[in-house]
UniProtKB/TrEMBL annotation:
Disordered as annotated region, ranges: 137-172
InterPro entries given in the database record: Got1, Vesicle_transpt_Got1/SFT2
Subcellular location: Golgi apparatus membrane
Pfam annotation, one family: Got1
GO BP term (any one): retrograde transport, endosome to Golgi
Transmembrane stretches, start-end: 20-39, 45-67, 79-103, 109-127
Basic and acidic residues: bias regions: 138-156, 163-172
Organism: Cyclophora tenuis (Marine diatom)
Family from the record: Belongs to the GOT1 family.
Sorted UniProt keywords: Golgi apparatus, Membrane, Transmembrane, Transmembrane helix
Name of the protein this chain belongs to: Vesicle transport protein
One GO cellular component, as annotated: cytosol
Main location: Golgi
Length: 172
């Protein structure tokens, strides 16, 4: 009696560890299926694990509440139709529809996910590595490098260009 009620409780409310394991395995099988020239069996297995993993991770009620919002109906429809096409044996079109639906459903979560990934010890250093280079504006481009370079070499007075474009070699 106790084990069965515990098991139904897990299915009804969800278990994050099991759900994340299912989602991870589904992602691995899907990527492997795409890498192996859209292998139908691997893509089907990846989709089934994804279908089982989402409600297990966040709970069935929250899953239904998220996927069946009226403003997300087109994205949910594309994702479901893509899954059905993969299960029916049309992996290329199915994966394309799934990607479109997935990006429309979860696209607004990518900045949040990246911010969270920056907090993870090993992965965070990879995400932060590209941020150290600052973008150069037009005002900071080649024209102003003489000013900064001469000032940096110890010339106390900054360089002011008052030539207004004339070529002045100093020979009259």
């Amino acid at each position: 009696g106790g084990t069965f009620s515990n098991m139904s409780n897990i299915v009804r409310k969800g278990d994050r560890r099991i759900g994340l394991s299912l989602l991870g395995a589904g992602g691995v099988f899907t990527l492997l299926g795409v890498t192996l020239f859209f292998n139908k069996s691997l893509l089907r297995l990846g989709n089934l694990l994804f279908i089982a993993g989402v409600p297990m991770t966040i709970g069935p009620g929250r899953t239904a509440g998220y996927f069946f919002q009226p403003k997300k109906s087109r994205a949910t429809g594309c994702l479901m139709l893509g899954i059905l096409l993969v299960l029916a044996g049309h992996p290329l079109f199915g994966i394309c529809l799934e990607i479109f639906g997935f990006l429309n459903l979860f696209g607004n979560m990518f900045p949040v996910a990246i911010a969270l990934m920056k907090q993870v010890p090993v992965v965070g250093s990879i995400f932060k590595a590209g941020q150290n280079q600052k973008r150069r504006s037009k005002a900071d481009s080649y024209e102003n490098t003489r000013d900064r370079d001469s000032y940096a070499r110890g010339n106390d007075e900054p360089y002011y260009d008052d030539s207004y474009g004339r070529q002045d070699d100093g020979y009259y």
